[in-house]
Design brief:
The structure is a homodimer. With about 280 residues, chain A is α/β, with parallel strands linked by helices. Chain A contains 10 helices and 10 strands. Chain A has an 8-stranded parallel beta barrel with strand order 1-2-3-4-5-6-7-10, surrounded by 7 helices. In chain A, strands 8-9 form a two-stranded antiparallel ribbon. Chain A starts with 11 loop residues before the first strand and ends with a helix.
Chain lengths: ~280, ~280
């Protein structure tokens, strides 16, 4: 059964990368004027800026900062590069604290030069190494399982079962899971694993978009909700059934939409959110 | 632990589509001359030919006909189209019998206009409907789980667990599973499910290739064994541990290789088979 319709925008969050052609300042102004209530900030949007002031600017626009994207990319065959990744994750934690984001989404990484099992172990080790820094800064970490088509270089965590297992093993209140319909819609165990995620109280955030049919680019051809074949409403109903009260975050990478007028695209996002999310 | 090296070509089968620019007659001549022992025939390669005579031609070249690709594509929102799919599968069974192929590989299909659960039910119904025809012709049917990136239109069966479950539920000696490393390499449960597949005595065939890093086309950019990040030897060792004594079938769709001289490509296949399979 689908979830009840969304009647307002009170839970609508948009990722800064969704409207990539806009600066974070333009995004803040336009999101706010359109009634969007939350923003997830990608680190590239912060380049060359005072992060603390940017956080203040977003709050002045009455936008809740939902998360910072992204930490992770822990695995590497060479230990020096794993060390560099740890340092970068510590930096991300500092940035999240300065910005005022309570959560960092982890795209965990994968090194095609070593077995997936090694990458998975290095992900767990990496997360455990940064937990003290996350805890000190009061920043949560969301393990985001990525679609299996990204298992070569982007993430060796490819199902919600794996993310749930890892969060459970790590067993820290700072570590949970981010559910993205794009990565997980195909999984026959999805409803069960979303329930499990909620029961473990570690469902930290929820991303939405759609899977285009056909998909012409493995990375940059995500669709607006309703354009493709993902049952977004149904998956949202599973998420809500866990007691999740957080935002629904629109995260779309799209060469097609990035070429459009972003104000028109924002209107389309809001329409798709109301009708198909 | 990797499997022992392959020391000869006695288990090497190549799919006709792997050397797509060649006619089936050219493929037969060249495979045979190179010492290849098996061929899996794609139905497009049979167009405009007498199928029985083509089977004889292949046997004259001392090529074992391993399977016919492909049946399946059962799901559709409209019952008339599901009926058409059943008819086409019956036709495939006739063709396999005429050719002398003991097995049809099923790319099960998926209709993006309906929930995956509906597609999965229609797949099971479709297979059960054609079993009597398969049994009468003594043709086995191999459910091939496809990579989750094909869940929209090509297959709603995306893990070996699903294929094993379905084969077990259907419970016919004519229905089993085809394992393809390209579709399944990312799965954390792969070793377990291959064991289960073997224990159920329904591991019917085994396809190999590699996952290119990066992959530039979702369908037509498969790599030669050793070029990418799939642990082909390790997966072969799991397959062999089940007691599997069938062929290792090289199935590569590649715009890049199809543009090359196919005789040189065949040499590369044999080298990759010996060194990285």
């Amino acid at each position: 059964m689908d979830a009840r319709p969304v009647t307002d925008l009170s839970k609508l969050c948009i990722h800064s990368i969704t409207t990539k052609p806009w600066s974070i300042e333009e995004a803040a102004k336009n999101f706010s004027a359109a009634g969007v209530k939350g923003i997830t900030v990608w680190r590239d949007a912060l380049e060359g800026r005072n992060i603390r002031e940017t956080g203040e600017m977003l709050r002045e626009h009455v936008l809740q900062i939902v998360s910072l994207c992204r930490g992770g990319f822990f695995p590497n065959k060479t230990s020096a590069k794993r060390k560099t990744a740890i340092d970068d994750n510590k930096k991300a934690i500092e940035e999240a604290a300065e910005l005022g984001a309570p959560l960092i989404v982890l795209v965990c990484g994968s090194d095609p030069n070593q077995p997936l099992e090694d990458s998975r172990k290095q992900i767990k080790d990496g997360i455990e190494e940064i937990i003290p820094f996350a805890a000190a800064a009061k920043i949560k970490l969301g393990i985001e399982p990525l679609h299996p088509m990204y298992a070569d270089t982007r993430s060796a965590i490819n199902t919600l079962a794996q993310a749930n297992d890892m969060a459970k093993e790590i067993n820290s209140k700072w570590v949970g899971v981010t559910v993205d319909v794009y990565h997980l819609w195909w999984d026959p165990d999805l409803e069960y694993e979303i329930k499990r995620c909620g029961a473990n109280k570690h469902l930290f955030s929820f991303h939405i978009c759609d899977w285009n049919v056909p998909t012409v680019d493995m990375l940059l051809d995500r669709g607006l909700m309703g354009e493709g074949c993902i049952p977004v409403k149904k998956i949202r109903s599973w998420v809500e059934a866990t007691g999740y009260i957080g935002f629904y975050e629109v995260e779309i990478f799209s060469n097609k939409f990035w070429k459009e007028d972003q104000s028109l695209f924002l209107k389309k996002i809001i329409k798709a959110y109301k009708e198909n999310s």
